[in-house]
Fold these 2 entries.
Entry 1:
Amino acid sequence: MPEIVLHNGSIKQDDWVVVPRPEEGESLNVPDQKALIPADLWLAGYERYAGRADIGVWLDSHQEPESLGDKVNELPVIAVNFPKFTDGRGYSIARILRERLGFENELRAIGDVLLDQLQFMKRCGFNSYALRPDKDIQKAAKCLGFFTQGYQAATDTDTPLFRRRAG
Amino acid sequence: MYVYDEHDRQIAAERVAQFRDQTDRALAGELAEEEFLPLRLQNGLYVQRLAPMLRIAVPYGMMRSNQLRRLARISRDYDKGYAHFTTRQNVQLNWPNLEDVPDILAELAEVEMHANQTSGNCIRNTTTDQFAGVQDDEIADPRPYCEIIRQWSTFHPEFAFLPRKFKVAVNASEKTDRAAIQVHDIGLQIVRNEAGDLGFRVHVGGGLGRTPMVAPVIREFLPELDLLTYLEAVLRVYNRYGRRDNKFKARIKILVKALTPAGFADKVEAEWAHIKDSPTKLTRDAIDRIKSYFTEPSYVSLENASDLLAKQRFENRAFDQWLSHNVDTHKKPGYSIVNLTIKETGTPPGDVTDRQMEQIADLADEYSFGEIRVTHQQNVVLADVRQDRLFELWQAIVPMGFGTANLNTLTDVICCPGGDYCALANAKSIPVAEAIQRRFDDLDYLYDLGNIDLNISGCMNACGHHHVGNIGVLGVDKKGEEFYQISLGGSSHHDASIGKILGPSFAREAMPDVIAKIIDVYVGRRTEEETFLDTYRRIGIDPFKESVYA
Ligand code: HEM
Ligand code: SF4
């Protein structure tokens, strides 16, 4: 089973599987295990999926987290896909989920997740990372921890440095 | 000037360690070239035509003499002994070795310098007026706001992978704009509203490059304390909705155009409503704290040295010319602002040797409280020179090559490195600048022509700001040969406008003649008080066309 990194740098087995968007004309095939399904399909099948601890969702980088609205905390896991590590939309999505929609459960980065982006992901509210498989997961803790502080307020701290300096 | 505290020092040190680790992993093959690329770009490191190029940040163009001395030493120890002042108020090294870059960054950090976010698709170095704080026509000193933006944008976790690079500029003068704010992604004009409160007029969506645009105003008045939350809202809208499918359409100007300025402003307001009162909202305290770094140097109480200067001018015509052209008025009696032009004919605009950097540092210590400013016209400013020492300063700088009294004239060319250094160039630009400087070598004639911005870029990326030159020159490639296209009527000031293309391009040899013909039309048609731009705006492009293509 693949492994994921948690925001404190520890590594654990990953028991979630990401279910891809079905092709045109096909229907969603939810496996018999913990599954992350496309967020819009979760909403479309809300009656069926709501409240299930084994179903989470994933959002693609062009999708609107706002669509999940006040239902976010019914989800055990929300994953955000980085189709390409240079596509930075996922960072804004994460902050909106955490800071605007108040999402409290696991927020996971999936897709083209590389080591040097982990620190930004962490600050934007991700707390688990499915690193791209060819990357050395043992280096994740170090890369998460290069900076002991940041200038800005973000999801990890609501005191920007200018407020801390004042104190 | 801003001085690091223990937090800034720690962040800077952590950054150097991080980049060292990234470079090690890249050299060990653990990072693919395309994965390392944005990381090194965010550390100012390009891979160029001849070697890597390192762009070092000079926040809002200000440096202390010890920092410039360190740059001199770095350029000597790690490079070929010279560097380049850029139109973004930064400094570039043209030939460092990749392996040395972490060491260079460590050396920079020792003097509170860095190369953070000088390239790449992130928020770049914020620029401002090189005369900030020393002229009396500004509404407030823009530098504290630039520093506030610098801190907020440094390693901003949400905005390190934007659709494209992002540039912010701040201007504070009502009369003029030396920061070209309307051709930036965000241009902030410091204003006061009717109640007398300080704030910003916000322009969004300007820029040069392939699709040049003057930025529309999207908010007439943004209260001072809301600066960062509003910027965050603009950036978030851009990050989420800016185009990512096509690099040439990825700038915010394209988004603003697609949504219309009003539509874009609505989206920003909606976003801002959610975060307006978040902890990112500035506090009076925070602003005052930053402002305390930009207090006045220890000026002595002086009278204007009018009589002395009049006498010196009378005795020395060259000094008189320099004083008229390269020296500006200062808000403090008895002081002046001195512009050192780095535009001696035959040296590429903006290029400085290690020795010259040390000379400038010495001059700053001796004459200007140890402080130096880089201008977007690729010159250097000593902002606080006593008038009774101007003559002595002038005598010192002439042999150094900084005394060319041509500021803002036709030969004070803005010029990108072009084909001599840049891998993207379609044509060389430095030799064109030089040929024009040689042709117009008579200072009296230049003075008679008045202010003319001549800007040259080697390709449509527009590093030389050709679109906003009163006369713009753009290098183009035609079947592997270098040609030059002319545009007229651009301006980067409060009356910002994009120049209009004159017509078919010219061979390099023809350039001085073409410029001369354009100038002749101006001289023939101007009325007494008109600048080149005034005349152009009155008579339009046709008379120039007719003469040049006759
Ligand atoms: C030598 C290597 C350089 C490279 C590879 C390079 C690359 C680029 C590129 C690709 C753009 C286009 C951005 C766009 O699409 O808007 C650009 C724009 C620009 N660059 Fe450079 N550049 C270089 C040097 C310089 C230098 C030396 C300066 C200053 C003298 C400079 C200042 C600028 C400015 C002001 C723009 C205008 C962008 C805008 O406002 O839209 N660059 N550069
Ligand atoms: S304008 Fe073109 S040629 Fe000149 S520095 Fe920029 S990218 Fe290079």
Entry 2:
Amino acid sequence: MPESFAFAPQYASIPHRDHTAELGMWVFIATEVLLFGGLILTYFVYRHAFPEDFAEGSRRTEIVIGTANTAVLLTSSFLVAWAVEIFSPDTARIVTWLLVGAACLGLAFIVLKGIEYSKEYDEHLVPGVDFQFAGSRASGVQLFFIFYFIATAIHALHMLIGICLLITLATICRTAPTTRHQTALRSGALYWHFVDAIWIFLFALIYLPGRSSS
Amino acid sequence: MSEKNYLTTDYTLKSWFLTTDHKRIAILYFASLIFFFFIGGAAATAIRIELATPQADLVSSDIYNRLFTMHGIIMVWFFLIPSIPNTLGNFIVPLMIGARDLAFPRLNLMSWYIFMLGGCTTLFAIFAGGVDTGWTFYTPFSTLYSNSYVIVAAAGVFIAGFSSILTGLNFIVTIHRLRAPGLTWYRLPLFLWSLYATSVILVLATPVLAITLILIATERFFGVGIFDPRIGGDPLLFQHLFWFYSHPAVYIMILPGMGVINELVSCYSRKQVFGYKFVAWASLAIAAVGFLVWGHHMFVSGQSLVASLVFSFMSFIVAVPSAIKVFNWTATLHKGSIHFDAPMLYALAFIGLFTIGGLTGLFLACLAFDVHATDTYFVVAHFHYIMVGGMVTAYFGGLHYWWPKMTGRHYSEYWARTAAVLIFFGFNLTFFPQFILGAEGMPRRYHVYPPEFQVWNVLSSGGAAILAVAYLMPLLYLGYSAFFGARASANPWNATGLEWQTSSPPPEFNFTTQPVVTRAPYQYNGDFQAEPQNA
Ligand code: HEM
Ligand SMILES: [Cu+2]
């Protein structure tokens, strides 16, 4: 693949630079795992303390939107993986479109999430804003929704960053595809898959408890 | 001096504030840390002056709370955690591995800006209204009762956390990928092993702190009960999350210091480090086991007895690799041809003070003793022996050792030795009485106390005055030497690290030709001809 830029002086060669960049992304993902890990740990502590309340809270979430979002995100991850797989100067056009497609799906996710949030707002499920819940389970359900909102908001923030990343990648892959861009694409894809993987966990923790019985 | 070095390549402000040269970024950090050290130090001075008498005659209890909180927050997050990694580490890591820069130079610059943003945010909180929660932000106090600047201060710490993470990431990748040909892992200087272990903690522990601070902010803003027991929350969970970061963080504060000591001890006793592999792996062992002992900060919190026993046991385990290091330094010194240059004086002080700090850590790890000593001055003395006696001393040692490399100048050996001795003396006078105070039951964080404690408190405050002067001295003679000191050669200590094979100060990209490593580190054999240095 043609190489249009000289590499920075600290690297010995182009592959050296590229592998270094990818390792950087892996280490970054390690810190992200711990970030969500702390949050998920909190979730488990309280789910252990209030199992019924968490099931109750979970039943109040919008499982249709949640499921749709899971499908949307998995598809977008698939498109990104596809783009990584076929990347070469000849396929620049397809790669660009695949990335644009993935970014659009990411946006769709955000929009659906917004609809979900507004429904929850209407149902007075937003803690600290106007949470209202009849019955004895109110405080446990509120804890569930605190977790739900913090986790999904942080996840959505990651999505927004990811969407910007995908659009940037789409633009640079369109013009001058080199190994440098390939590396950028691979690292960006790693990040996107990571955000996707986190969602799978969140999906299971948020939408599924208490659903199997009724 | 015809050739350009990293200091003389360009003189504009822009060339400093937009630099991607790890050496210049190290200098940026260095200047910022001096600034924070003095703010934290000013608060400490006020605290010690207040405690010189049993009554409250200098400040009210409210101001006192703000003072020790300010002291703690600044010293822990804006001085100790970044100290050696971000200044000496930033400067030395690429030089030591024969690289031309860190793996991600722009990320490195960004992390300095993030750090400054965090620092300014916290300073704003402190000066706008103050924070009185203590550096640990314990809930529910921090979320329900305390004044509203808690969240601003926490936001500053949160922001600075990203800087830590990025630095850790940069070091890990750099040490993995940018080592010079021939520089295998077992040829790596031990300073790098310890920075590597530190970086692992930075990368894996800091995000947990971040999420904890987010949870506090949410609780406070929305009045929801995450940690508030009245609405189902659990204040112990906060402590677990907090100490899951903050115990490993104490190793962020000490491991780099241990790394510096390896370099100094072997250089100034002209001997190979005894048990190189043990020392190397001990760093990683400390980092790993350090993640499993956080509960020893919670012995009296109401956690279950079983949990306390396990944490107590694990705390003893983590002392083993620390002890390995002390034994190995001692063995390295044994029959060495020891040269008492200033850096070596700091190193010896470190070994003594760290040993005292570590042993009293074992006292505290004993459940029964800790129940007696929790929240007394005994704990205060313990962690100051580690963090100030240990880390700050190591920092000064490393700074003196690499000073000629960083500036190309010698400092006055006479004043440097005087300062080192004074620091050792002042430090012990400040903090040893606190062990006694604590054992006798004086609680921490009170600004009035029964008159019978006054003797020890006066000694402690007197020591603090000496210590303050001793800490100011390097500012003067190092500052002087930076401009007027005698020129240093490339390798003034006749040391073996790769960083000594390039000129002092190094050129912009460190090495004119790629160094190749063919030997194990620390190949000293008793010879020593330091160059004459009359500053
Ligand atoms: C040699 C291994 C060590 C052991 C076994 C140990 C043990 C302990 C224990 C049991 C406590 C809890 C005291 C209490 O709150 O009642 C404690 C407190 C503390 N330790 Fe250590 N420690 C060790 C090393 C270190 C190191 C290396 C540092 C810092 C670089 C450090 C810094 C601290 C701090 C800051 C506290 C006080 C926390 C607070 O309550 O604010 N320790 N240590
Ligand atoms: Cu601890």
